[in-house]
Amino acid sequence: MKKIILASLIAISTQFAFAENKAPTADPAFAEVEAMVKANNMTGAYQALEKLGKAGNAQALYNLGYLTQTGQGAPKDEKKAIQLYEQSASKGYPVADYVLGKNYLAGSLGVKQDTAKAKQYFEKASAKGFTDATVDLAVLLFSENNPASDKLALQKLDPLIKKGNFQAIHAKALYDISTGFKNKDEAPIKQGLASIQSLAQKGYIPALMAVGNMFTNGNIVPQNLPEAKKIFSALAKENVPQAQESLAVVEKMMAEQAKAPATTATKAAKKS
Questions:
Q1: Does a structural domain hold residue 250?
Q2: What Cα–Cα distance (Å) separates residue 132 from each residue in 92, 129, 166?
Q3: For the chain, which end, N or C, has fewer CB atoms within 10 Å of the first or last residue's CB respectively?
């Protein structure tokens, strides 16, 4: 139960795109690159980033990795993208560590799935203050399903929760719910549900998806397909990943439920 519920958080991956330069002392070369991207001159942007990358700029190497991964400004090449992310990570860019961790966790971009390696990359990014990595690291620790790992995960989440970090609050809520079911204790389940409800009311998408799934499955709260449809419909309009697929599942379930009474009534009429 614990691994199943916590896996839902892992599945909600953060979408990383082109990293903008937000440093107070911005490199004019990056301003030029960003202008090219906005003008959709991806070939020019790629060439400018190559110059910065050859000079050892970690952010430029990361951006080159992203453009190479997506085939913008250069031919799509997943193997080369991984190499560029690795170069960026070796120069201390935490987003590159995090992206490498996500790919090793999923076994994507041509790399073999390796949870241990993913954990190492998350640890590196977390140590550099990248909060998304800290949350994903905590989720991985929870999935190890032992008290020592749980304790360490909670320690890592606690400072973020105190700062009001939605991702951390959500991860802790899912942990509370799964722990409550495991120990047959309603208190942590109620606590976790309250946290998710609060996040959903604030518009936090993963929490809204979680609530939608709960209404769909009916395992934690009573099944409410119309409410699930309402949630997934709103999210699908915003092009939220997996929302359209979830909406299709709910609509299919509603259609099947609508047929069931009619089928029962038909059978009863034939018998009479």
A1: yes
A2: 16, 9, 10
A3: C
What would the pLDDT profile of 102-146 be if each residue is shown by its tens digit? 999 999 999 999 999 999 999 999 999 999 999 999 999 999 999
Place of tokens 């769909």: 216
pTM, entire model: 0.80
CA 15-149-124 angle, to 5 degrees, is 45
Contact (Cβ atoms closer than 8 angstroms) between residue 19 and residue 187: no
pLDDT above 70 coverage of the chain, percent: 86
Burial classification of residue 227, based on how many CB atoms lie within 10 Å of its CB (0-12 exposed, 13-18 middle, 19 or more buried): middle
Residues spanned by the domain of 245: 203-257
- The domain tally of the chain equals 1
Angle at which helix 42-54 crosses helix 58-70, to 10 degrees, equals: 140
